[in-house]
């Protein structure tokens, strides 16, 4: 009996030990599986949410890049350089020789630009009396959203404007008009109408009369001194983890935007949102690779979105949702990638690559664009037509004409009041209405400044570009 009890006890101990072992081993397996799943989730979330974070953050990071590179001396031959809160004025009328890195630049206006920073105090901007001449300053915040100072919105008398940052409270000097901005830093891009070489000096004098000063250094009528820009290394963060570092820094300091709390929580979950401090050094190797993959995928989406066509109106692609994006982060990123832009009520840019038959425009052929009587583009400002190579550059031509429109000298109307423009590479017999084209395939862009309501609603439609005939050998 005692022997039997002993055997039973031994058996129970063995079974109990086996159960403890099995329980311990199973727990190990469960813990290992949990760790594996947690790591997998972290990696995949980093990649997939990271793509959305890239699209969302593209304008924030791109503007930080440009602001640094244009307010620091990063090379001896850089195109644009001025310290923060000071204007740089492009010194030339835009031509193939002076267009530099511009994409599809216009030959109708002179450009001036500045990067603003109102974290410490408002920035006062002086604009001269232009005597009715068209000008605009696009005030672009870090989210690529735009408001305008200029003829359409504020008139052409001499004026002072003060950019005031989020939450600013204070008193501005008499005669200074407040312009609230939603982000503490951003970009100013100005355009001043110029009617060709003969008008250049007068137009440039007006550009030179535009200046900016911090509120503490502002004295009416007195332009402040131009500090020397600091030196710095080029900043190129769009294809490295520096992208998420800059994005995170911005999100932690910018005011929260309505309707984006859930999105920001997702960004927090992968370490790049406003509620966390991004630390690239603390990332696991797998998460690092996932975020780098997100950058590659995000860049591919942005680049593809800039190449896609949009719905056309009588053959002309017209974007009417620039400068106001809501939650369309991909479109916002694609516009930023292409160079930002004005609000549609300030200017429209109908563009086409194709003639009326659907064939690509080419300098091998001759074309015409015919406006019926009373059907010129309806604008309160001005309109013009330009052509570019497929990489959005102006091409040299023998008469140095890079746009044609309502201000062109010696424009000839037909006897019934209609207007026919001629687009071709070789000169026609009559050159008054000729816009020279590049030799190969080309892009045509109309510009409608201060477009009337009919142009904003498709009540007015531009005529198609019609191929006349092949150029004979």
Key words describing this protein structure:
single chain; 22% strand; five-stranded antiparallel β-sheet; 20 strands; Jelly Rolls; 473 residues; alpha+beta
Describe this structure in words.
With 473 residues, the chain is of the alpha+beta class. The protein has three domains: 38-76 and 248-307, no CATH class; 88-217, Immunoglobulin-like, CATH 2.60.40; 329-470, Domain of unknown function DUF1214, C-terminal domain (Jelly Rolls, Sandwich), CATH 2.60.120.600. The chain contains eight helices and 20 strands. It has helices at 2-71, 151-154, 200-208, 242-253, 261-269, 285-307, 329-338, 453-456; strands at residues 88-89, 109-117, 123-127, 135-141, 146-150, 159-164, 176-180, 185-193, 211-214, 312-313, 316-317, 347-348, 351-352, 365-371, 379-389, 404-405, 419-424, 434-436, 442-451, 466-470. Strands 1-2-8-4-5 form a five-stranded antiparallel β-sheet. Strands 12, 13, 15, 16 and 19 form a five-stranded antiparallel β-sheet that branches. Strands 7-6-3-9 form a four-stranded mixed β-sheet, with no helix packed on it. The protein is globular, with a radius of gyration of 30 Å.
Number of helical runs? 8
Structural class: alpha+beta
Count of beta strands: 20
Largest sheet: 5 strands, antiparallel
The CATH topology label of the largest domain is: Jelly Rolls
Q: End-to-end span in angstroms?
A: 120 Å
Order of helices and strands: HEEEEEHEEEHEHHHEEHEEEEEEEEHE
What form results from the Cα inertia axes?
globular
| CATH H-level homologous superfamily name of the largest domain | Domain of unknown function DUF1214, C-terminal domain
Any low-confidence stretches, pLDDT <50, length ≥5? none
Radius of gyration: 30 Å
CATH class of the largest domain: Mainly Beta
In percent, how much strand structure appears in the residues?
15-25%
Strand order of the largest sheet: 1-2-8-4-5
Domain count, please report it.
Answer: 3
- Average pLDDT over all residues: 91
What kind of oligomer do you see? single chain
Helical fraction: 25-40%
Q: What is the CATH architecture term of the largest domain?
A: Sandwich
């Amino acid at each position: 009996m005692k022997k039997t009890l002993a055997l039973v006890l031994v058996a129970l101990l063995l079974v109990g030990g086996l159960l403890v072992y099995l329980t311990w081993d199973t727990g190990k397996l469960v813990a290992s599986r949990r760790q594996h799943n947690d790591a997998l989730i972290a990696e995949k979330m980093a990649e997939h949410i990271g793509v959305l974070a890239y699209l969302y953050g593209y304008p924030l990071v791109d503007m930080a890049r440009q602001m640094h590179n244009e307010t620091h001396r990063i090379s001896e031959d850089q195109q644009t350089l001025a310290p923060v809160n000071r204007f740089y004025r492009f010194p030339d009328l835009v031509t193939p020789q002076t267009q530099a890195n511009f994409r599809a630049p216009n030959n109708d206006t002179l450009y001036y630009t500045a990067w603003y920073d109102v974290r410490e105090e408002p920035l006062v901007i002086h604009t001269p009396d232009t005597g009715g001449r068209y000008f605009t300053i696009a005030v672009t915040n870090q989210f690529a959203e735009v408001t305008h100072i200029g003829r359409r919105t504020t008139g052409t008398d001499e004026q002072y404007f003060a950019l005031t940052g989020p939450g600013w409270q204070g008193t501005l000097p008499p005669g200074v008009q407040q312009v609230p901005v939603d982000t503490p830093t951003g970009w100013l891009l100005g355009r001043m109408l110029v009617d060709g070489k003969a008008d250049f000096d007068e137009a440039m004098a007006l550009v030179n009369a535009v200046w900016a000063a911090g509120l503490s250094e502002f004295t009416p009528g007195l332009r402040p001194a131009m500090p020397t820009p600091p030196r710095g290394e080029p900043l190129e963060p769009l294809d490295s983890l520096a992208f998420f570092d800059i994005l995170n820094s911005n999100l932690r300091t910018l005011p929260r935007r309505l309707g984006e709390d859930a999105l920001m929580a997702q960004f927090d979950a992968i370490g790049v949102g406003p509620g966390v401090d991004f630390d690239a050094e603390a990332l696991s190797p797998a998460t690092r690779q996932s975020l780098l993959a997100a950058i590659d995928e995000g860049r591919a989406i942005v680049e593809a979105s800039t190449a896609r066509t949009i719905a056309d109106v009588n053959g002309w692609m017209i974007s009417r949702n620039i400068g106001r994006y809501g939650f369309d982060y991909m479109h916002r990123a694609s516009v930023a990638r292409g160079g930002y832009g004005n609000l549609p009520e300030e200017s429209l840019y109908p563009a086409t690559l194709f003639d009326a038959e659907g064939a690509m425009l080419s300098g091998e052929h001759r074309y015409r664009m015919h406006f019926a009587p009373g059907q010129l583009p309806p604008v309160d400002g001005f309109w013009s037509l330009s052509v570019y190579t497929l990489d959005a550059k102006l091409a040299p031509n023998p008469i140095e004409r890079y746009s044609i429109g309502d201000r062109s000298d010696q424009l000839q109307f037909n006897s019934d009041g209609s207007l026919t423009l001629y687009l071709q590479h070789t000169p026609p017999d009559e050159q008054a209405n000729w816009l020279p084209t590049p030799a190969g395939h080309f892009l045509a862009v109309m510009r409608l400044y201060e477009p009337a309501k009919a142009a904003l609603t498709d009540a007015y439609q531009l005529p198609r570009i019609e191929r006349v005939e092949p150029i004979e050998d």
